[in-house]
Amino acid sequence: MKKSWLILLIACLYTTALDAAPAAPEPRAALEEKVIEHTLKNGMKLLMVERHSSPTVSAWIRFRVGSVDERSDERGLAHLLEHMLFKGTTTLGTRDYASEKPILETIEQTAQELMAEKARREQGDANRVADLQKKLTALESDASRFVVKDEFFELYARNGGVGYNAFTSRDGTTYLISLPSNKLELWAAIESDRMQNPVLREFYSERAVVMEERRRTYDSDPENKLWETFVAAAYLAHPYGQPTIGWMREIENLTRTKAERFFRAYYGPQTAIVAIVGDIEPRATVALVERYFGQMPAGGRPAPVTAEEPRQGGERRIEQVADAEPTVVIGFHKPAITAPDDYVFDVIKMILGNGRTSRLYKKLVIEKQIAAEVSVFDAPGSRYPNMLVVNANPRAPHTVKEVEDAILAELALLKNEPVSGRDLQRILNKLEYDEARRMGTNGGLARNLTEYEAVTGNWRYMTEYRRKVALVTPADIQRVARQYFTRENRLVGFITKKGGEGQ
Asked: How far apart are CA 467 and CA 462, in angstroms?
């Protein structure tokens, strides 16, 4: 179906061995009848689909909390918490929590003193910084003797669980596992314990891991650095412009105290959507979830983001000079997933960039051979107004300027020439195929249920989607292209190879 390229990639990566033999997907009308909903008194939403094709089940928990919900002093916390929630609880991941706890408290006090001294910069006491750093290292070493590494993972693995993982986006945070259906109670016991009694042990060493991830993945990778700068330039007011991982200086200032406060405020049943798909008996599953999760108190929800990105007054261009192959990224601001025009954009996206028969691939890669690859996707999120983005890599000796001009020429065609009915029907056929493929696995269906319930407020978005796309007309496409594909609404980012002459 959709949404951003990253979400779809993750969905593919986490289609695990337990989902290797997909069930026949239910038609949309049948799916409406087969999804069973149950809402706990504390606000947790449970979505279930009963499938008995194999004795397995996929369980996904989606929290409606992402990096877009962070305050200015919390940037990067949602992503760091994703790491930390694998560290265990008061009973898992520790050999003796009663003995470990006071050391963790001393670690936090020492870390905060160290950060406060570093924050003084030139006025700080270098000797005190060195002493505090030495003390912190010693305390962390002392605490490590209580740690049982990867106990969550080992428990699941010993009981047949596969695909145990998590991911954080601007819109939310998801934890997932596939396991034998007779081990569902193990899942409920582990995940309810993690929601109620997490211990953010090894916080500062894990923060260092995230900082290294940031250096390796963004600061040292020219294409990722361009992308991060591109998104930041696109959103001057809205928090979508902030990277999910956080800027380096922000990560450096995150503390365990801030993380615990953020977790306690928002990562409760009131923001949780659970999807359980597979070999289950719904009434027994409801009783199981009620038993393990029903007594949790409801907390708060992040306040809706009220910031609105002001309209651009002209094209924005971002250049990255690097010892890397050239690339170009072109983006246009567009409405959020729930807006009627978003369906039109999805059709445009498929016309331009869905597969080898799409217009941009045929024109740039096959016919003109000026690009090595091209992709079209939504970014950086879905809950709030986002962007339609085209990314292409020029094929030597062709330039970024040639590729950019060719992309803009194809966008102009959408304004001036109606799309044929045959092309629209081809899109609907491809949509049907892709939907069936993704919905055929327990994990794929659980992903879709949690994703659309979270970002649109109703999982039924996925059952209504094809019908609404089928209503899109050639005139709609021309109208949207003329309205949004303008110079004033355009961002262009490109890499210039070091020593080159720009575009």
From this structure: 10
